[in-house]
Amino acid sequence: MKKIFAVILSISLIMGLAACAGKAEVPSKKDVQKEVEKEYDMDFKLDSKDIAEDGSEAEWVFISEDGTLEVTVTWSADDPDEFDFDDKKLDVTGPEPTETGPLPTDVVQYDGPMVGVSMPTKDLQRWNQDGDYIETELENLGYAVDLQYAANDIYTQVSQIENMVNSGCDVIIVAAIESSSVSEALDLAEQAGVTVIAYDRLIYESDAVDYYVTFDNYTLGLMQGEYIAAALGLESGAGPFNIEITTGDASDNNAMLFYQGAMDVLNPYIENGQLAVLSGQTAFEDVATTSWKTESAQSRAENIISAYYSNGEQIDAWLCSNDSTALGVENALAANYTGPYPIITGQDCDIANIKNMLDGKQAMSMFKDTRTLAYQAVVMADEILSGQVVEVNDTVTYDNGELVVPTYLVEPVMVDVNNYYEILIDSGYYTEYDLGL
User: Fold this and answer.
1) What share of the chain is helix, strand, coil (3-state, %, to 5)?
2) How far is residue 314's CA from residue 144's CA, in Å, rounded to a whole number?
3) Residue 22 has pLDDT above 60, yes or no
4) Domain range spanning residue 142?
């Protein structure tokens, strides 16, 4: 059945018109998918797309999540405000059973290369950005993408990965909720010949991990520690100063690397008395934050402030491994602490934290440009699917207990009030509007 109707394009699409050439830009996959889902009141996934080299016309094919409907959407620059929809019902009897039993009836089978992308949660801004970027860039290369978020639930992520394998994904990119929580699902991937890329978090106790892409997280922690040392003048013998420590989830390999890097800088100053930790909490297991949750970091910080800094003691620095934990500490300080704000570190350059930085409530944040990390994951997936040699730059460091995983490391960048505009806004990562400027 065919439907042709005029679509009022989103503001972002209208602004994307190439005014100088007098020609409309090809609508994004997200804009087209939104119109399809609004028209049919169903959830859809992209199956394929074909865009003319000169951008004069385009075609997208979407399949409903339940596998019952295929919709082909065509568009022409001659009439950029109109989409042509052509839909047809699909056979819903499901794929043929295998020797190990039938595939799940909700799994859609695609032709051509497909990449699964398993992200831990939508609750943190960075995972939304990572997932969206990877999906867009893979689709631009012509691959079908199955992007899933697991709501920080281990069982949900395992089920989603298993469905990706069963639906025919050739490569799966996994940002694991916990470092050893998805090993059984990866065993299924290995049996099916699916290549697995661990994304930003190393997956432990599995020989099914083929590659790892991450930031140089030890160096990131080192840079956080060096920032605190420089800001307090520790190398010149200044002190004593009070410091507290908050890091990430104890099951996350990256949290340990951040902690080790920072503490390798700060421990000598703790040992010689230039830095004092009044709470006495310095061991990794004592300063870890379950699931990196802001609320958990805030609760612990409130307890520390109440117990050790309620009689006018000053907090001079608070090492926080990332922005979600830093935000929790900053919330606790705002509600319970009357002294000057300490030097607070962070990571990810989340919008709320950059705003706090501009208000003097956070000193710095390590910028892990997720576009760079996501781009490298896309490059690796494309190299795998096109039969090329996969580029890595570390083949000795990341031992997951079963094998040393070939790794590509991306370098982080330090951001503070002096360079945030150049790094975050001039680069297009944020706009002035995003940061309330």
Assistant:
1) 35, 20, 40
2) 54
3) no
4) 114-209+370-410
